[in-house]
Amino acid sequence: MELDRYDRRILEVLQKEGRISNQELADRIGLSPSPCLRRVRALEDSGLILGYRALLDAKKLGYSLMTLIHISMDRHTPERFANFEASVGELPEVLECLLITGQDADYQLKVIAHDMEAYQELLLNRITRIEGVSGVHSSFVLRRVVDKSALPVGRA
C-alpha cells in the first residue's frame, strides 16, 4: 500500500490517540470526515492497522518487577522451538518473546511480576520446566528510559 502524507499523519495520530473521534482526526489532519474515515478503513483493511488496545498501568495493577530473561535451548530443532514458543505464549506474565541472535541465548523474554517471590515462582516452577530450556540469565529493569509502542511512519 502506497502511503501519502494524509495516511502517514492518520497513522501517527492513531498510534498516540486510538480513541480519537473521526471528526477530530479529520480536523487534525486537514481532511473532511468522509474521506478521512475511508482512509482509516483502507488502512485497517490492508492490515497496516492491526487493532486498537488500552494501555494499562502495571504498577497500579501491582506489577512492580520487570525482568528481561535470556533463555538458552538444549537443541535447535523446529519442534523444540515450537514447544517453547507455545509454552511461553500461555504465560500471562510474558509480555514479549523474541527469538534472537548475537547472544549466548536463543530467546529474550520480557516478563512482569508482582514482586521477587512471584518472579521466582514463575522462573523456577514454570519457565525452567519447559522442555528444552538449558540456561537462563535474568536482568532486572531498574527504570524505563524509553517506553513507546508507536512506529515511525515518516518517509519509507
UniProtKB/TrEMBL annotation:
One Pfam family cited in the UniProt record for this chain: HTH_24
GO cellular component: cytosol
Classification via InterPro entries: ArsR-like_HTH (IPR011991), AsnC-type_HTH_dom (IPR000485), Dimeric_a/b-barrel (IPR011008), Tscrpt_reg_AsnC-like (IPR019888), Tscrpt_reg_AsnC/Lrp_C (IPR019887), Tscrpt_reg_HTH_AsnC-type_CS (IPR019885), WH-like_DNA-bd_sf (IPR036388), WH_DNA-bd_sf (IPR036390)
GO-annotated molecular function: sequence-specific DNA binding
This protein's UniProt keywords: DNA-binding, Transcription, Transcription regulation
Biological processes per GO annotation: regulation of DNA-templated transcription; response to amino acid
HTH asnC-type domain location: 3-64
PANTHER family the record matches: LEUCINE-RESPONSIVE REGULATORY PROTEIN, TRANSCRIPTIONAL REGULATOR AZLB
Protein name as catalogued: AsnC family transcriptional regulator
UniProt organism field: Sulfuricella denitrificans (strain DSM 22764 / NBRC 105220 / skB26)
